[in-house]
Amino acid sequence: MTVFRRMKIALGAALALGLAGTVAQADEQFFPLQSYRVGPYAAGGTGFFGGFIDYLNLINIRDGGVNGVKLTWDEGETQYEVERGVEVYERLKNRPGVAAWNPLSVGIAYAMIDRITKDKVPLITINHGRTDSTDGRVFPYVFPLLLNPYSETSGIVNYIASREGGPDKLKGKKIIVLYHGSPYGKETIPIYKLLADKYGFELEQIEVPHPGNEQQSQWLSIRRAKADYVVLRGWGVMNPVALKTAQKVGFPADHIIGNVWSNSEEDVIPAGDAAKGYVAITTQASGAEYPVLQEVIKTVYGAGKGNLDDKKRIGSVYHNLGIVNGILNVEAIRIAQEKFGKRTLTGDEVRWGFEHLQLDPARVEALGAKGLFHSINVTWDNHEGDGRVTFQQWDGAKWKVVSDWIAPDWAALRPIIEKSAAAYAQEHGIKIRTSGDDPVGQ
Amino acid sequence: MFDYQFLLEVLIGGLLSGVMYSLVAIGFVLIYKTSGVLNFAQGAMLLFAALTFVSLVERGTSFVVALAATLAVMIALGIAVERAVLRPLVNQPPITLFMATLGLSYIIEGAAQLLWGTQVHGLDIGVSDIPFDVGGVFISRFDLFAAAVAGSLVALFTLFFRYTRTGLSFRAVADDQFAALAVGLRLPRVWAAVWTAAGIVALVAGLLWGARLGVQFSLSLVVLKALPVLVLGGFDSIAGAIVGGLLIGATEKLAEVYVGPLFGGGIEAWAAYVVALALLLVRPSGLFGQKLVERV
User: Fold this and answer.
1) Which residue of A has its CA nearest to B215?
2) How many other CB atoms are found less than 10 A from the CB of residue A174?
């Protein structure tokens, strides 16, 4: 990639939204993208938004859009900063045919909830966001698709149980959660406590102050505690530093289980050999062998329209997350079109599509994504959609899937989610929906 | 029963981490000593150096050639900063110069990403981080290597300042800029040289920190680790940077392990600043900093 091209991208994102994409018109469905291609989190941003755009391009080039409705998008650079994300929202929200917002940022997503609810446009927080937004009765426009933080917690504990030979073998084991010192990092503290009580494992939760570039004392404490497993709930530089420091104190990498924001190539490559054997949860497998990825390579990159500058990143964790996010957005539109007509839809109509986003393994296979992700079953009151998780292990060069698709313990988590959502509803004066046919809004 | 072995391990780990902080702090001290400027761009320079080096290596350049090329780039950067930023701002108040370095840090960070991209990189400098086991106490090989490098750097700078013409001119400018000008020293040349020296320190620190954290954007945040070191040791003392680093490193680790649990953990980031601020109240120029005496 030339310097000129990078300058063009950065300046284009910052100054001229019209440069990066196209403008939505009749029979077009528009995706406003609050991307981050520069700044500290650019590696993840370029991968995710690159994958998302690659899939939208695939649908346009291969199918001529969704039933003839062309997909369009524009990017606004946020550098992962909340105020910039909100600014981009205000700038792009009045463009015609807005389908959904996909910020891939907890902070930006939180800041948008009231706004998108008022404007009646879906907010997609795949694998992240407020856990209680899973409750569609209270959060009609927010969709933490595939995985919320509580399900992630349960999925990780279930995986450790499977390695130990069953949930009953967890009793007496010592699990330490090393979490990022931020609201994101702290969100799962009560759930780990709940699961420790349920399964009888010993639990310790240790905070790493932001940004996490120094963890000597935490890992010495872990070694002294003689932990059986460490769950790494990290972010950014905290992840490779955790792996390197674990090596420094002699803790085995294959007993460190990373959460969904500690599972990318960007988290392990800087750690070098120290990352070999490290295991992390994911909702989507990495690799480019899946038919949909092959089509993206052939059709989109073959036409010179690929979004990633470095083709080696095709099939990486963030790129594949973007691809899966693209599939879910496009299928929601397709489902909504069946009800409302093959035309540009309103945000509220796309919301209906997301609330009926049910892709079983057969449909996932038909979309060329068998093995890439398992399935999703979103309903009007369950906006997460019961996504399955799998675990991947870093072999020093690439991730390898090392588990089956695992189901979190949704039944145990649902009452906690409903309680939190009910408190939010009371605080904000929201009328709780009692059926999918209820009118939505504040 | 109190675990003294664990205490020793935490203490050694803290001291060795402190050496890494000192490496960053030395870059600040060099520039502050000679120009009175707190160079906020030191972290960005560190990132730029590490990113340039690792990008060249990944493009097939040999380690030695990449090191030489990065050194040349850092020298060019030092000279360019003096020409484009410092020289036009001669005689401006310190806060203006500080703001200039703040702007400079953003420019360097942006330029680094434009030139070399946004991907993170692993950096292997050939030093393993498998620990030594000394009587049950684990000691990091990498941190020992870093301490040796920092020690060598300090020794080199000490010799340079005492026995070379340029080094003596650095000291003269540091003592009194106007007197140095009066005896014929060229300030711009000294400043260019000192920014070059800071660039070299940034390269060394960038390689060591890059090998420790990976080479990524957040590398520039290591300056936050250097600030309490500077407050404690003094902004204009290389010896102070070393002693301050050791004290801060040890204090924050001991505080995190033994005091942290009382506060729910995660205190090391601000514990270092508590110590630095406490010292600031009783000794504003730091442990080794020069006391400012002014005629009023």
Assistant:
1) A270
2) 15
